[in-house]
Amino acid sequence: MAAKSSRKSSSNATAGQESAKEIVKTLEHFDPPAPAKFGKDDEIRAYRDMLLIRRFEEKAGQLYGMGFIGGFCHLYIGQEAVVVGMQMAMKEGDQVITGYRDHGHMLATGMEARGVMAELTGRRSGYSKGKGGSMHMFSKEKKFFGGHGIVGAQVPIGTGLAFASQYNRTDAMSITYFGDGAANQGQVYESFNMASLWKLPVVYVIENNRYAMGTSVSRASAETDFSHRGLSFKIPGIQVDGMDVRAVKAAGDLAAKHCRSGEGPIILEMMTYRYRGHSMSDPAKYRSRDEVQKMRSESDPIEQVKKRLLGDHGMSEDDVKAIDKEVREIVADAADFAQNDPEPDPSELWTDVYADEIPQTAE
Amino acid sequence: MPTEILMPALSPTMEEGTLAKWVKQVGDDVAAGDIIAEIETDKATMEVEAVDEGRLGKILVEAGSEGVKVNTPIALLLGEGEDEGDLEKAGSGSGGGGTKAADDADQKSSGKGSDSDGGGSAKPSRDEAVSDMSARRVPGEGKVHPEPKDVEGELAQEIPEGTEMVSITVREALRDAMAEELRRDDAVFVMGEEVAEYQGAYKITQGLLDEFGPRRVVDTPITEHGFAGLGVGAAFGGLRPIVEFMTFNFAMQAIDQIINSAAKTLYMAGGQMGCPIVFRGPNGAAARVAAQHSQDYAAWYSHVPGLKVVQPYTAADYKGLLKSAIRDPNPVIFLENEILYGQTFEIPKLDDWTVPIGKARIHRPGTDVTIVSFGIGMTYAVKAAEELAKEGIEAEVVDLRTIRPMDLDTVIRSVKKTNRCVTVEEGFPQCSVGGHIASEIMVRAFDYLDAPVLKVAGKDVPMPYAANLEKLALPSVKEVIDAVKAVTYRD
């Protein structure tokens, strides 16, 4: 492939020194920056935040099986390092938007486990009062703009968030997540074009978990290197080990520097993996059990951090177990809350249709 | 106490399944994520993964069992420090969450419809039944948002007496409305194809770039789906976008963003955040541009809760309603008409002329028949009314101005006076705006009708190119006159 033969590597540069400008000028594939150097506190934060997502999703799967959660439920298990690493590279005011596999993104932005779980069970204390469900949740306070059920639709919207930041002359950036499946939607490229044309501060994070529902990347994509997908729009892209939270953090830092210095959008392709099916009702016959188990046993994002906590950082099994216990308690509390919170009042059927609506009682 | 493993629901509709195979056996250690069993449903074979870790203590449902109900305990898992002796403690009616879920489901199904049953044992007289019809409808059916109650017509806002009137085209009215709102609020900006340097494909944005600069007046690439979505995101981010479509025919490329993202977000977010945005541009047939450039979308958008839909006729309404639309906290579809752009109307000379969204206007008072129309449909209605007056038929012409929320109170009030109604629009006849009005009149003013409501609409064909065929496809003044004569039983 022509693009690949002209690849230039910046691997001689040391971590964090890659110039954003250099990327824009050369428009070639770059090796990702070296993984970020994590201190003990960083590792603990990453471990805790990823574990919270893992345990939350396991519980959500369980509640789905028990009938407490209805409809579609797409679990994020396996991909935790992506949102946690990106969150560690963000600052106050940055905006986040994603598709329907969104529970992890919400927890990473600091949204309450109780509110998210109660939305999953369709109860009144859910983030959307029970009206949105798994795929449609928002938090204005945490700058989480959804939670979108139409594959790829979040990409122009995330680009518009960046437009608003630029218009208002803030230095916020928009972290716009989508999957390898959404990356084949036309509106993604309409967005790339405008974002690059207007130098909008948007980081396109493509979470490549290898399968768009049941279709593997190679069966759906002519160019399977998604970091190259922005080249015709002069958008640089890098491929990142999305199972290593430190690699994600380093890529996020680079992208933030790029965006905030007015250089426009950047693509981060996160090489990741989902352990569970596309949704709860997916028998996952398109891949082998061994493939899943191999990822779990060799590349698990949480185990990687745990190993370093026990090794490099000298934590004891009991110290780590204490974190596990704390996380389990948060999740157990959220699940308990979400099962006992009342359903929305029937009158809620008619509210929130219009921002200026005139309240009416049922006839 | 051992953990009960329950028969899981693996899809939104699964109620029972076959326990095909146990992958783990009694005594086996189980880690979270291990497959413990296989389940067959009518759709697929699924693997059941363990959520908790422990040791499989007892199998309660043997492999091969069919029709196992969701939430039935199928096995017991022993946790840390538990042994076989603990098995006795489980399963004796403690139930756990699974049972509760099943109870909830039962409640849900038995509770269905309980609040929609009006009861009503005493049989009302026929008169009561008729006058009370709207109150007797299924709760919520036909209810729209927001519907200001205005039975007496008190909300009718009009021009203060003694106001100076000036002549202005619809094109100028639209430009002035945008310029005034751009001056008023820095969050307002205009984007679309050719809106800036070209001064607008139909010159609606003429002069705006000069006054407001490229930050506020933004030329986009030809990328309707993309810039409609980008506009939605900008609105989420606190701006007040005016998105111009060169014509609404091209907005079909963007309709997913308009409906799924703009219209539904406030509801899906439980009221936390909505989408204040105006999508505007010419709509419907121009002249000789054929099927793909000649569709009226009033009925399409008016179908969608969360949207407001405006389609004015006069320059005063164009200006006043566009200013209201820009200030509105909801997504507003603002349907213009190319043929009307050059037409001149009187408009009040006021510093801040606005017209409320959701209020119809009596364009011409009358007593014999009500003609309801909007947008360019009004041109047929008004001419027909003039012709009919010469024959002694006084038509009351109601200009809806807003299609959603629809001011049915004004329509019903007029029909109760005239007892007859004809609707006029250029859109297709099936599921049309007129069709909705007819059904509402039937429910709310059945006893006042002296004739069926008749609809005059575009013909049920794609718009043809040939001049004679195009004319035939559109409504005509004659069709309106004929319809009025039919409902007034004149020849």
Structural class of chain B: alpha/beta
Low-confidence parts of chain B lasting 5 or more residues at pLDDT below 50? 91-124
Mean pLDDT of chain A: 90
**How large is the radius of gyration of chain A?**
20 Å
Q: Please count the helical segments of chain B.
A: 15
Termini gap of chain A = 67 Å
The fraction of residues in strands of chain A falls at: 5-15%
Helix fraction bin of chain B: 25-40%
Percent in strands of chain B: 15-25%
| Strands of chain A, count | 8
Number of strand elements of chain B:
22
The gyration radius over C-alpha positions of chain B equals 31 Å
Question: Would you summarize the structure shown here?
Answer:
By secondary structure, chain A is α/β, with parallel strands linked by helices.
How would you describe the overall organization of this protein?
The complex is a heterodimer of chains A (363) and B (491). By secondary structure, chain A is of the alpha/beta class. Chain A is 42% helix and 10% strand. Chain A has helices at residues 2-5, 20-26, 40-65, 80-89, 103-108, 113-120, 154-167, 186-197, 217-220, 245-260, 289-299, 301-310, 317-340, and strands spanning 95-98, 144-147, 174-179, 202-208, 211-212, 215-216, 237-241, 266-271. In chain A, the strands form two sheets. A six-stranded parallel sheet of chain A has the order 2-1-3-4-8-7, with helices on both faces. In chain A, helix 3 (40-65) packs across helix 4 (80-89) and helix 7 packs parallel to helix 8 (186-197). Mean pLDDT of chain A is 90; it is low at 1-15 and 359-363. Chain B has 491 residues and is α/β, with parallel strands linked by helices. Chain B has helices at residues 96-111, 126-131, 170-184, 208-216, 224-236, 255-263, 265-268, 298-302, 315-327, 338-341, 377-390, 408-418, 433-445, 467-473, 477-487; strands spanning 3-6, 16-22, 29-30, 35-40, 45-49, 54-59, 65-69, 73-78, 165-169, 188-192, 217-219, 240-244, 277-282, 308-310, 331-336, 344-348, 361-364, 369-373, 395-399, 402-404, 421-424, 454-456. In chain B, the strands form five sheets. In chain B, strands 11-10-12-13-15-14-20 form a seven-stranded mixed sheet, with helices on both faces. A five-stranded mixed sheet of chain B has the order 17-19-18-21-22, with helices on both faces. In chain B, helix 11 (377-390) links the parallel strand 18 (369-373) and strand 19 (395-399). The model of chain B is unreliable at 91-124 (pLDDT under 50). At the A-B interface, helix 3, strand 2, helix 7 and helix 8 of A face strand 5, helix 1, helix 5, helix 6 and helix 7 of B.
